[in-house]
Design goal:
The complex is a heterodimer of chains A (420) and B (249). Helix content of chain A is 67%, strand content 5%. Chain A is mostly helical and 420 residues long. Chain A folds into two domains: 267 residues, Formate dehydrogenase/DMSO reductase fold (Up-down Bundle); 37 residues, no CATH class. In chain A, a hairpin with a 4-residue loop joins β3 and β4. In chain A, α1 packs antiparallel against α14. Chain A is globular. Chain B has 249 residues and is of the alpha+beta class. Chain B has one domain. In chain B, a hairpin with a 5-residue loop joins β9 and β10. The longest helix of chain B is centred in the middle third of the chain and has 11 residues. The chains are: A mainly alpha (420), B alpha+beta (249). The structure holds iron/sulfur cluster (2 copies).
Amino acid sequence: MGRKYDIAMVIFGLLGLLGIAAFIYQLQKGLIVTNMRNPFSWGLYISMWAFYVGTAAGGLVVSSAINIFGVKQLKPIAPVASLSAFIFAISAMLMALPDIGRPDRLLNLFQYPNPSSLILWDFVVLSVYAILSAVYTYVQLQPRIAERGISIPLIGTVMKKEVTAAQLEELRRVSERRAKLLAPVALPFAILIHTVTAWVLATQFSRPWWYGGLLAPTFIAAALTAGPAVVILASLAIYGFKEDLKPTYRLLAKVSAFSAAVLLFMYYNDFLVRQWWGNGREYDALMLVLKDNLHIHAIEVSFLLAGIIVLAKKYDTFSGLVTGSLLLNIGILAHRYILFPPAYNLIPFRVPVVMAGESFEWEYPIALGEVRGTLLDPQPIFVSYWNYVPSAVEVAITVGFFGLITFAFLALMKALPVRE
Amino acid sequence: MVRYGMVIDLNRCIGCRSCAVVCKMVNAQPPGTWWQRVETVGSEEHMVPVGEYPNLSEVFLPVPCMHCENAPCVKVCPVGATWTREDGLVLVDFERCIGCRYCITACPYGVRQFNWQDPDENVRQGFERAGFDSNWYADGEYRYGYPVDHRTEDGRLVYTNKRPRGVVEKCTFCVQFVDQGISPACVRGCPGNARIFGDLDDPDSEISKVLKDRSAFRLLEDLGTEPKVFYIPPARKEGKGGVRYGEKI
Ligand code: SF4
Ligand code: SF4
């Protein structure tokens, strides 16, 4: 891993610094430096939050599959899987941070929690999930840590103990037993993080693009697509493409591709239902996807389809696994992004106008919340459509945080004895 | 129990936007932010009728916060910064809001406004864009708007003309006046006298009497938000205010 690893660390580290710099800039200026405005109040950050919640799935689902359902093929990569769950659960919460107008008041979440708010519950389940994943990783690695220790740059190896072969055997048994105990506790949370995240949006009756019972199942399908795909990529980076790992990769590839197919089925099932009636708010939301946001829709579907095909056919080659996993993740990313434009640009407050010659639904415009235009070049403050494109700062923070996350992931992978 | 509500008589509204302007001044809204909107229904431009001549329609629809009984903004707020006071007012605590903007997503009426940057910066930009070369009160303590901070009985900051950045704000039914027994500014500022404010639970209040006599409707009734702002529908005006019933089809 030596040289390549160092180059990767430098690149991701620099990206991370860029992200932090952009975040500091945003803290100084306020959220005005994003392109979100009153009519379009959540954008790229919250899309990424939903995306990372999804990628966090792989880990615990994989680990639980081993310990509850006895799927032995997955065992060799279990520590990497649960470590990725931990990292991405933290990432999801990290990604929500730049979206908050008053990060200095975050402690209010503990001081004045409102139990009817699903954002609060999402925060709770994500935190528990992150802690469980961390504990789970530690439990799995405990014997190896005793044997080989944790290597921290500049400090050296820590937590290494002098153990006899018999003691090591005992440690392994204990670790195995504890993992078995933890798995049933962790699995419900692995499912809850996606459903609760979906419920944050799906409960909003005034947003027909989200509202309803279908969103949570599609979130689970998206998570079971992105999660295993991320675990494939991480395992390839750590363990490489070894002969004895082939069954593991095959299984993960199958789960991911199959989930993507299920996701597409649920998605288009919803499309058909919306389309058939040919009118109304549900239909209009669909039209916002198929007209104004067709380019994003094209990306999500073509990448998902291509990813399914590649993973289903080429799961036994290194390049096939990498390409397929990347394709699926990009598809899911676009799928997450498209959660927002059709929701916000269908202004909930519409007034029916019925006249002899025509009838239509008129959208009551919303004040943007920014100073626009000049005296000689006035621009409307009240709009009923906001063409949201993430600003440079939003992109810098998002890309930068991705760098930061990957940096942390790689660093942990190196420090911890994840290899056999 | 007092339960405050408002009636807006659309027959009386002349679309002058006085309510929006007086609200903006009195409640110290930064440039770009509006708690109160008045639009011509169906039209792209205010004061331009919709339809083809001679079948024209021009209905003005003023929209404050509805102070919903089943308010989604209250339910979604993770920290209870938005809450319903005992008298039915839905208020935002400027000192508790974390700026997550979930409530903006939840409110179907589009009345919630976020302070995307320091409001003083909005004022400075406002001066600049309007062609003044300096900010008139950049360094002074002066800000426009009702000058005294207002707190509820339990000490929550619900009005200040020095608005913090990164928090949400919206129509409060002029809580700083209501607590002194005075009507909201829009009610007092409306030249057409289109608005009535009062206690919905008191059968003798003016608002209850009006609601008893007239047919009223609420906005987006089918969402079940149960607004406490009621509208009296406009009658079609013909000639000198009469209604025409044709003899033949
Ligand atoms: S109109 Fe909007 S802001 Fe006002 S109470 Fe209802 S949901 Fe809340
Ligand atoms: S933006 Fe403020 S008032 Fe609105 S939900 Fe978040 S914390 Fe509550």
